[in-house]
Automatic annotation (TrEMBL), chains A, B:
Subunit structure: Homodimer.
EC number: 4.1.3.38
Cofactor annotation: pyridoxal 5'-phosphate
PANTHER family, per database record: AMINO-ACID AMINOTRANSFERASE, AMINODEOXYCHORISMATE LYASE
Name of protein: Aminodeoxychorismate lyase
Family indicated by similarity: Belongs to the class-IV pyridoxal-phosphate-dependent aminotransferase family.
Length: 282, 282
C-alpha cells in the first residue's frame, strides 16, 4: 500500500517501482538531494548539484554530470504551482550479492515529487527544541555528504515525535553539537554567526552554504565554522536551523532558555526570501 | 538492467520490484539477514531470527514474529539442491517524506535467493588480509544489529578489491579491531579464543555466536569477548573470520605475518561442518 501518490521516476521513466536488487536498498549505497521547487524551478540548484557530485565522487559512483538539471526539468512538467519538494536519490544501482561494488556499476536515479503546503521562507513560529539522546558517530570519510545511511536521523526524529520536540540538537560523542536532526545549525553571538564544523560527521547543507557564502555576507556578518560544545547553544543571542524545505527557522525554546527577539534571523530570512522571489520572477 | 535473475519476493509475492517510496531505500531504515540454505533448510535459523527481531526492536519497527521460518519455507520451494544464500531485508516500509517514522508503519519484507557455487564449510585457501583504511564509526545505539546502513563496509570492500586483499580488518577510531569487512574475527592465543567486543560498533554475527556458544565449548575452548588492539592480530597463533556464507575462513597472511598451521581453526570447522551435515540429514 502506497501512502503517497506522488509522481515518481526511475531512470527517467515514470515509475514507482524500483527494480531489485538495488544497492541503495541493500546497503544505503548512494546519495540524495531534496530540492525546493518554486513554480517548477529549483532553488540553489548549483549547490545541490555540487554536493551531489561530491557525494558520488566520495563513494566512487560514476554518474551523469550534471545530473540534476535534466531531472528538475522533467519533474517541473508535473510540478504544481507554488512549492514542491523534489527528492533525487542516486544509488550504485544493481549488482551481485556482497558489499563489494561491481566493477562497472550503472547508477540509478530515483525521483519523487511532493507538493508542499507551507511557504518555506515565510516567518513561522519559532521551534521548541531539546538535545537528542542519539549521538552522531564520527566518520570523516562520510562527513558532509548526503548519503543514504540515515538511521541516526531516523532514530532522532522518532525521539522528537515521542517527546513532542519541534527539532533536536545532535551532538557527537565528545559532546560537540553537529546539527539539528534535519537541518544545519547557526548561533548568533555578539552580532556574528557560528556554525559547527562538519569534519567528523553531519551533512553540509545547501542552505548552510548559502548562509555562509551569500546571505550572511549580504548583511555584513562574519560566519565562523568551529567546534561548539552542546551547552553553548543555550548561551547564544539567537539560534536558527536551516534546510531546503524549512528555509530558516528560529529556535524559541531550548530547555530552560527562551528567546523572543530574532533580529539577525529575521534579516537573514529576508535576504533568503528576496533570493527566492528573484528566482521566481526570473 | 538486472545483473541477476535470482528469485525475489516482496511481501510474500514473487516480484523483483520494490514499491516506492520505501524507507529502506530512502534512509537505510531497516535490517537484513543473510542465511545459508542447505538443500532448502536454513542453518542457524533461530540465531538469525533472534538477531533480526533484536534489530527490529532497536529500530522500533513492528513486524511479524517469528518472521524468517515462513520466509525460508516459501523460498525453499525454489531453492536449488546444495547451497544457496537467502537474503531477507525488512524495512519500515512506505511513509511520507522526512526522517520521522510514520505513526503506524507497515514493515516490508524483501527476499532474494541466490545459488552458491562453493561449499561454505569446506577447508579453503587461507585468506590474505590487511588493515582497512576505513574506520568504523562508534555508534552504540546501532552496534550489534545488522541494519541497512552499510556504507562503511561498501567502502572497505571496494578498498579490498582495489588492493587485492581477500578481506580486511576494520578498526574503530581508537585503533581497536572490530571485525572483518564481511564477517567477525577470532584470534587463537595460548589455546583459547579472543573476539572483539561489539559494544561500540560492528555486527554480532550468527557464526560468531555459534563459535562462542556451541563450537568452541564443544572443543573445551574458552572464548573471551574483549577490546583488542589492531596490532595484536598479528601476534595471534591463528586468526579466522566467520560469516554465514563463508563458514570459518583461516587467515594465512596479514602484512608481514604468515600462518601455516591452523589446528584450532580446522577443529572448529570440523565441528561446524558436523552441525551442518547433521542438519542436512535431519
Amino acid at each position: 500500500m502506497a501512502v503517497t501518490a506522488d509522481p515518481c521516476w526511475v531512470d527517467g521513466e515514470r515509475s514507482s517501482q524500483l527494480p531489485l536488487p538495488d544497492r541503495g536498498l541493500a546497503f544505503g549505497d548512494g546519495v540524495f538531494e531534496t530540492l525546493l521547487l518554486v513554480n517548477g524551478a529549483a532553488m540553489l540548484l548549483a549547490y545541490h548539484e555540487e554536493r551531489l557530485q561530491s557525494g558520488l565522487e566520495r563513494l566512487g559512483i560514476a554518474a551523469t554530470r550534471p545530473l540534476l538539471a535534466a531531472t528538475v526539468e522533467q519533474a517541473a512538467g508535473e510540478s504544481p504551482a507554488g512549492y514542491a519538494a523534489l527528492r533525487v536519490t542516486v544509488t550504485r544501482g544493481t549488482g551481485p550479492r556482497g558489499y563489494a561494488p561491481p566493477p562497472a556499476p550503472s547508477a540509478r536515479v530515483i525521483v519523487q515529487l511532493s507538493p508542499l503546503q507551507h511557504d518555506p521562507y515565510a516567518w513561522r513560529e519559532p521551534l521548541a527544541i531539546d538535545y537528542s539522546s542519539v549521538r552522531l558517530g564520527r566518520q570523516p570519510q562520510l562527513a558532509g555528504i548526503k548519503h543514504l545511511n540515515r538511521l541516526e536521523q531516523v532514530l532522532a526524529a522518532a525521539e522528537c515525535a515521542r517527546e513532542g520536540w519541534g527539532e533536536a540538537l545532535m551532538l557527537d560523542e565528545s559532546g560537540r553539537v553537529v546539527s539539528a536532526v534535519a537541518g544545519n545549525l547557526f548561533l548568533v553571538r555578539g552580532g556574528d554567526l557560528l556554525t559547527p564544523a562538519l569534519d567528523g560527521c553531519g551533512v553540509a547543507g545547501t542552505r548552510r552554504r548559502a548562509v555562509i557564502e551569500r546571505w550572511a555576507p549580504a548583511l555584513g556578518l562574519a560566519v565562523e565554522e568551529c567546534a561548539i560544545d552542546g551547552e553553548v547553544v543555550q548561551q547564544a543571542d539567537e539560534v536558527f536551523i536551516c534546510n531546503s524545505l524549512q528555509g530558516l527557522r528560529a529556535v524559541g525554546v531550548c530547555r530552560k532558555r527562551r528567546w523572543s527577539d530574532f533580529p539577525v534571523t529575521r534579516a537573514l530570512l529576508d535576504v533568503a526570501r528576496q533570493e527566492m522571489d528573484g528566482m521566481v520572477q526570473a
